[in-house]
Amino acid sequence: MSIQLASVTKSFGTHKALNGVSLSIEAGSFFVVLGPSGCGKSTLLRAIAGLEPIDTGEIDLDGLPVARDGFHLAPEDRQVGVVFQSYALWPHMSVAGNVAFPLETSGKRRAAVSSRVAECLESVALTPFMHRKPAELSGGQRQRVALARCLAQGAGTVLMDEPLANLDPHLRAAMEEELAAFHKASEATTLFITHDQREAMALADQVAVMWDGEILQVADPDTLYRRPVSKRVAGFIGRSTLVPVVVERVDDGEAQVRLGEITLDVDCPQDCIPGPATLLLRPEHLVLATGSRGFEGTVERTIYRGGYWEVFVRVGDVSQPLLMLLNRKAAVGDTLRLDILRGWVLPG
Ligand SMILES: Nc1ncnc2c1ncn2[C@@H]1O[C@H](COP(=O)(O)OP(=O)(O)OP(=O)(O)O)[C@@H](O)[C@H]1O
């Protein structure tokens, strides 16, 4: 099922939780909405599910309006499954009972229900646990029950609100793989909400970065990482150093910039113009120089991250230290000869 939002707004009192949100989500894709706490992610998901009426704008599912101009299709008529952070399982029912419940209430025959339940439990590897109660499961297993329930309903669209937020890092990584497998097997359009950029990068076909009720950028994870449209998006995705530069020359997606005393060739957007700008440097863009190339910097701070060090290097009168990764120890005060392989020019 495809999902379209056109200029959707939703206010709570004077606060605009959704401020003119437009999105187009392709059928079958894994679409992640990424943003800090309170930016409106849950409100967006609830609006699509039909749990929150919108003020203005339009929401279409598979090209058909489900919300616009005062029209509001009830959640149960939208055929979207929702998985919340709290899983919302019935504690008194077994795993199988939880998965069967929506099918039974929709009036399906008993034999059809039990074979569908068995199929769905199998697909999330929960068959051995089918007679247990939710309280007798781990967080990850409960999560899978909620997924199986979505799957059983045959929802062509699954909306997930921070479903991994309660899990420890180890289980989280395992669940990420399971979610990817679930998505592949079910081919359901998946809208996944998170404030964890690492999770977004790992799972998404497309990521929408949200901030204060607005969508700042929609792109695949690699584009978002390499070509963010603003400092805000850049700062939210991955580690980086943002430093002021002066763009001297621009030629078809490449720019010559001046960073303090250093002149660099870097990538830039097509609409980049000469003048003051900000340069985005990812840690892997900075390397130790070979031969006669490069420039000198002084190590200001190092942090061991297990297998490698984050090293902050002060270069000339550049306003802040540049972050690089080294697989050997460097001491504070050491002089390093550096090279910058790439960079990305941001406006302003
Ligand atoms: N029912 C409500 N009444 C009043 N304000 C609300 C209501 N629901 C949400 N808000 C406000 O709208 C804003 C967006 O909330 P929302 O839950 O969508 O954010 P979020 O990005 O999902 O945050 P989190 O990651 O913390 O769950 C917040 O400022 C929140 O306080």
UniProtKB/TrEMBL annotation:
Pfam families: ABC_tran (PF00005), TOBE_2 (PF08402). Belongs to the ABC transporter superfamily. It comes from the Bacteria. The keyword ATP-binding applies. Coiled coil: none annotated. The lineage of its organism: Bacteria, Pseudomonadati, Pseudomonadota, Alphaproteobacteria, Hyphomicrobiales. Keywords: ATP-binding, Cell membrane, Membrane, Nucleotide-binding, Translocase, Transport. GO terms for molecular function: ATP binding. PROSITE patterns: ABC_TRANSPORTER_1, ABC_TRANSPORTER_2. This is ABC transporter ATP-binding protein. Residues 3-237 form the ABC transporter domain. It comes from Roseibium sediminicola.
